[in-house]
Write a structure and sequence with these properties.
Keywords: Membrane, Transmembrane, Transmembrane helix. With about 220 residues, this protein is mainly α. It has one domain. The chain is built from nine helices and two strands, in the order ααααββααααα. A two-stranded antiparallel sheet has the order 1-2. The longest helix is centred in the C-terminal third of the chain and has 28 residues, at about 185-210.
């Protein structure tokens, strides 16, 4: 029975990972490498790698991703989902590239993968492994991302990142466009964004503590 549980858990997690990597294929394959400068792309690639790792570990009884790392990617993809749903402009799904010939890419990276990652965290993760300071140490990648974008805009101010031929905008998101917003508004936006990371991270820590230590579904270990 344990093998069947491991097989099903592996299939679910590898499936989520493959979906996330398929949705970001154009970036990591080198077709449009500038798209790697989107936090959306980075968080989805991270989910893809970590979930395939976790799936193979469940199947083969191997070393699983560290709790800090999986928690970090869960936080990042949740922020991606929140920002994509409530802040970014609504995309025209009719003109979006599709994944597996069915789902619009933007819908997958901003809605489907975040929801699947959240469901995996609630249902399949071993809980009560997170430390309180994770809410702050998880800021390491967002801060690095911010520095990366500032450096890109400074050194390549006319290099767009969407991959479109006429794109000359070096900023991935409107709320990060320093040239347009000015230093004051940009600073306010970045502080609010970092606060959002800490708040959502704190909620993730609280939920992790409230849930039973043993996974709700498909527990494969005593």
């Amino acid at each position: 029975m344990n093998f069947l549980k491991r097989l099903l858990l592996a299939a679910i997690r590898i499936g989520i990972g493959v979906l996330a990597l398929a949705a970001t294929y154009s970036a990591w394959s080198g077709q449009t490498p500038t798209r790697l400068l989107y936090f959306t792309t980075e968080s989805n690639i991270g989910i893809g790698v970590v979930f395939i790792w976790a799936g193979l570990a469940a199947l083969l009884k191997g070393v699983e991703p560290p709790a800090w790392l999986k928690g970090a990617l869960t936080l990042y993809i949740l922020i991606t989902g929140i920002v994509g749903t409530f802040i970014l402009p609504v995309p025209n799904l009719a003109t979006e590239p599709v994944i597996f010939g069915v789902l619009a890419r933007t819908f997958v990276v901003h809605r489907v993968v975040p929801l699947l990652a959240l469901a995996d965290f609630v249902l399949f993760d071993v809980h009560r492994r997170y430390k309180w300071h994770y809410a702050f140490s998880w800021l390491s990648w967002p801060l690095f991302f911010l520095l990366l974008i500032l450096a890109h805009a400074h050194f390549m101010p006319a290099q767009g990142i969407s991959g479109l031929p006429d794109d000359r905008n070096p900023w991935p998101y409107g709320f990060m466009n320093l040239a347009k917003l000015g230093v004051a508004q940009f600073s306010v936006n970045m502080v609010l964004l970092l606060v959002a990371f800490v708040v959502v991270g704190g909620i993730l820590l609280a939920v992790d503590r409230l849930l039973p230590a043993k996974p709700l579904l498909l527990a494969t270990k005593a």
